[in-house]
Amino acid sequence: MASLAAPLPVPKEEEALSMQDVISPADALYDKCAQKAQGTVFFQRDLSNMQIAETMGELTMLLQELCDRHLMKLMTLEGEPCWKLRSRSDADKLRRLTPDERLLYHHIDQVQAEGIWSKALRARTNVTQQVLTKCLKSLESKELVQSVMSVKFPNRKMYLLKHLQPSEDIAGGPWQAEGDFDTALIQAISGAVAQYVENETCIKVPGNWNDYAQKKANAQGMRDIEEAPAVKPHQPSSDPNTSKLVHKNSPQYPNSASVAEWVNAKGVLRGKIVREDDMEQLLEMMVLDGRLEKISGTSYRTVLTAIDTKIYNGFVDAPCGNCPVFDLCGDEGEISARTCVYYGEWLQTQSEEV
Amino acid sequence: MSYNQRETPILAELCTLLVEDVYGELAARVYSILARHGRQTLAAVARASYLNGRQIKYGLVILLQQHLVFHSGNDASVTYYEIDWQNSYALVRLGKVAKLVEDRFGKKAANVMSNLLALGHTRIADLKDAYFPPETASDDESDDGVVNGAGLKRKRTNGTQANGTATKTNGVVNGVPSELDDAKPHLASLVNGGGAVNGIHKTNGTTHEPVADDAEQDDDDIGSVDELYEIIQRLIQRGWVRTVTESQYLSPGDMHDMLQQEAIEQENAGVTPTGTKDKDRVHRATLSLKRQMRDDWLTVPKFSQKRQAEDYSGSNKRVKISGANNWATPSVSSEDNLVIRVNPEKIAVAMRTEHLVQLVEQRLGSVTAGIYQTMLRMLESNIPRCYEEWPEPPLPGGEPPLENTIDHRLLVTARDVAKKLNRDLDICEGLDPHAIVHITKKGHVDKYTVLTHPTDPSRLSLDERTLVVDKHIQLLAEDPIHFVTWHSRAGHSQWHVEFEEIAKQMIQSEVENTISARKGALGVKLIRALRKKGKLDERATCNAMMMPANDIRGIINDLTVQGFVQTQEIPKVERREAKHSLHLVWYDRQRAREKLLHDTYKGMVRILQRVAFEREKVQPLLSKAERSDVIGNEEKWLSKGELDALKKWKEVQEKLLLQLFREDDLVATLRDFHGPLVSV
After folding, report:
1. Which family does it belong to (chain A) (predicted)?
2. Strand order in A116-117's β-sheet?
3. Which structural domain range is residue A81 located in?
4. Are residues A161 and A200 in the same domain?
């Protein structure tokens, strides 16, 4: 039926464009509907109110015609029929589809943003694998549908209409792109968030913040060297140029809601809005990363270390702790403490040659 | 079997090396037989070795004196010998103990302590004689120091050089089974060989090094007998030294049998329990007997002189309940006959304090660490051990235990800390300047975060100091490790320390340190994710770590091979196809802990082997340098090349031993601060 319908409307449409007066009532109805905002859903009441069809019967006929030409899509809402417009170009593409393709398109259309797995599609439509592959390919090449890798099931290809944004179930939250975590984005955002949290929970203190020794010396004037103040243990540098971070005194600890709010207000993620759940995922990940630490149930703060150099432990700082042949090492034999090259390197002594 | 008494082949190897290093070859050979064959009788040891009976007895006496070996009771027909792994391993800590005591009680106490360590258990009178030799014994051979192979040189078979001094066999040997009687004279000479003290008192840190200087010890010499007794008394009161009783020689197995029998007699009228209820009751009674016996070991004996120190606060509350045990310490009229030894459990407590302070220093800075140190040391004398080895099992109904109140001696207030704190510590450091201003109410913080009115920490009033200290303590409490926990408002703020939870975190952080050194931040992230979420499949792992699966797979694989992470495959279909199975990854802290502990033991064995190898290489030179005419005249008799080689050897040895002690720190964290963890 489509093959018959397909070639016909094309000249008709051109006709309609060239001769304004002889516009068909169906096209008139379409144009009228197109004036409304895109994506509007029309109920029978709305359409009859447009006063293009004289009677109910005629309206039904017009709608039937538009549906046949794929300019309108019939839907139901709570048992009541309703219609939605398709653009003329889309309708045009649809008219050129083969019946199999149209069938598949129909099923893909039904699932909307959720997407449908190719296997499920085949189960629903009962077409052979070859036909399925061929049709899906042609639908994709015609830019009617798109395929997306599911996040939940990484080996499933999900199909949905081209113009739709894949839902979060299959595409993941703001952190994911094309089914996988967007490492670069995550890195950039977590850097910004870490900085934000640091500003909220820590304070930078210069070396000379509490310069009492200097002041005392000034007040008492120059003193003999013997009377110099007693040596203080743990005396930190009082150089004003050095500074260190300390935890703020009674700060407002940020939580996922406040950080999300900050990120959204800053517009760091262009066009995307971060929900609280997404932010919690990111913050929890940063806790695992050791960049943040959880203070109470929901609030976070920056991890501070007082010592810059990383100290591991006695075992891994010795050659054995990182030895690639540790499990092969024995009391004697080719690999042993006597022949160990790593010990030789570490102690700068000669090991026994094997 | 006791958790602590589980041995692994690698621990046996490590301990044998340690025994050989400290007590020489003979002891090590006897020890290694016990290590390889397990619980043995004297006859079985003789069969398994090429040593003659006399040699074995000498070896055993050394081991018994040092509490490296358990033996079954004297009343049984045959005596069995069994290694005490905890004490054997503790040989590596000899130097550390002296340092810990010195930090707390000063140099003199450290001197007494290292003598005690070197001598094993000692009668107080003998210790006294060692410090203040009686007239008669003073004309002993001058090389008497060598007798105490302890702490001195390896490769000196102790037994052969025992030149029995005039001392009588005395109370010292009350722990030695009768079949070793003929070895007693030697033992006695081991203990109080006249002027031997000079030779051995330098054991701290350098058990591997022959030390021959006794010139600079005059400063911290103990002046009088009274002083010595006072030191000993204080050490006993604080729980660092305990009296020796025969029951301490029972292996955990023997002790269990004995106490269970006693429990059965008390609780079940001597009938072996059969029902669950009876069994449970007897089990509880056994555990409580064990605790009671152990607590009795710590009873502070009555000293004849009225020298009760003021700060005596009773090292254990359970002590008061004692009395029913006929095998408990017999009350001695004079302390001279008391036999004392170092209490290894207390050493672990002190090591835990040091570790925690170090950890705080890394996380929160040195000032906060100093305050934490003060807090922990105040608590220390009331903490007899790191964890309860025989905890009361939970009631069958699952009701929470009644004891929810915290012993007031385990609490510490900010005010007490402020009073006790070293005045030189700049307590304002490491805090938010705003907090200081808030406390002093002077000036304000300018835009460069500099105080307009600098505060001299030494001029703060006690109240202000308390407030400042409290700020530091709050930092400790807020840290995710929760170094302290708030208890009440007494003394401005009163705190207690939840050691159990902290010990778990310490174990975890050591595991993370290891992984971080091997696999970098990614490995640590994986472990943390698995610890938080439990068993995960690949997708859930990716979600938690927010990373593509490809980046994670390699790490999971590596950590599985290293034994830090476990994997599991759960089939979903009957045919168990890999494709249709769930593949889970998980992390078990206890397993990771045991694996790391085992690896560390192995690493320590390798270090000791390397030390031996390095020594072997310079052996000819070392024997030359140790010649009596060369010592002190090295410059004269040794060539430049030889001096350089000697120096290099010293450096190498020092580096290796330092590493050994650091690995021991790791062992302490992994093993001694917390009992077995319940798996996830």
Report:
1. Belongs to the eukaryotic RPC34/RPC39 RNA polymerase subunit family.
2. A116-117, A157-161, A145-149
3. 24-87
4. no
Nearest to A230 among B367, B424, B603 (CB): B424
d(CA B45, CA B57): 10
Q: Is B665 on the interface with A (CB under 8 A)?
A: yes
CATH of span B502-587: 1.10.10.10
Tell me which residue has tokens 């540790």: A326
CA distance A144 to A162: 5
Residue A262 CB coordination number (10 Å): 18
The verdict on residue A111 lying in a domain is yes
Please check whether residue A171 is in contact with residue A148, taking contact to mean a CB–CB distance below 8 angstroms. yes
A306:B428 CB<8 A = no
Q: Is B269 on the interface with A (CB under 8 A)?
A: no
Flag whether A310 is in a domain: no
Question: Looking at the predicted structure, is the pLDDT value of residue B192 above 50?
Answer: no
- Proportion of chain B above pLDDT 70, given as a percent: 78
Question: What gap in Å lies between CA A70 and CA A95, rounded to an integer?
Answer: 7
The residue among B137, B117, B227 whose CA lies nearest residue B189 is B137
Q: Are B165 and B190 in contact (CB under 8 A)?
A: no
User: pLDDT-derived band of residue A223, with 50, 70 and 90 as boundaries?
Assistant: very low
- Tell me the nearest-neighbour CA distance from B530 into chain A, angstroms: 10
Give dist(CA B88, CA B32) in Å, integer. Answer: 12
Residues of B in contact with A236 (CB under 8 A): 426, 429
Which residue bears the tokens 């094993």?
B120
Q: Is residue A313 part of a domain?
A: no
Torsion angle defined by CA atoms of residues B202, B670, B658 and B612, in that order, rounded to the nearest 10 degrees:
90
Burial of B253 (0-12, 13-18, 19+ CB in 10 A): middle
Q: What is the pLDDT of residues B115-129, one digit of tens each?
A: 888 888 888 888 888
B260/B282 Cα distance (integer angstroms): 7
Whole-angstrom distance, CA of residue B256 vs CA of residue B239: 24
Highest mean pLDDT among B103-112, B241-250, B317-326: B103-112
Q: Establish if B212 touches chain A: CB-CB under 8 angstroms.
A: no
Taking the C-alpha atoms of residue A105 and residue A125, their distance in angstroms, rounded to an integer, is 11
Q: Is the pTM of this model over 0.80?
A: no
Out of B432, B609, B648, name the one closest to residue A246 (CB).
B432
**In total, how many domains does chain A have?**
4
CB-nearest partner of A312 from B513, B600, B610: B513
Q: What is the DSSP track for B131-165?
A: HS--GGGGGS-GGGGGG--TTS-SS--GGGG----
Q: What 3-state DSSP class applies to B104?
A: helix
Provide the residue ranges of all domains of chain B, joining segments of one domain with +.
93-247+309-320+329-342, 348-394+408-497, 502-587, 593-672
What is the structure's pLDDT at B511? 92
CATH of the domain at A60: 1.10.10.10
Give yes or no: residues A115 and A219 share one domain.
Answer: no
Supply the DSSP string of A93-149, one letter for each residue.
HHHTS-HHHHHHHHHHHHHGGG-EEHHHHHHHH---HHHHHHHHHHHHHTTSEEEEE
Give the type of residue at B409. Answer: R
More confident residue, B419 or B633: B419
* Amino acid identity at B206: T
Is A258 in the same domain as A188?
Answer: yes
CA dist., res. B208 & res. B597, Å (int):
24
* Distance in angstroms (rounded) separating the CA atoms of residues B128 and B273: 50
Among A154, A284, A337, beta carbon nearest to B539: A154
> Is B593's pLDDT higher than 80?
yes
* B596 and chain A in contact, CB less than 8 A: yes
Distance from CA of B606 to the nearest CA of A (A): 5
User: Residue B26 in contact with residue B62, Cβ under 8 Å?
Assistant: yes
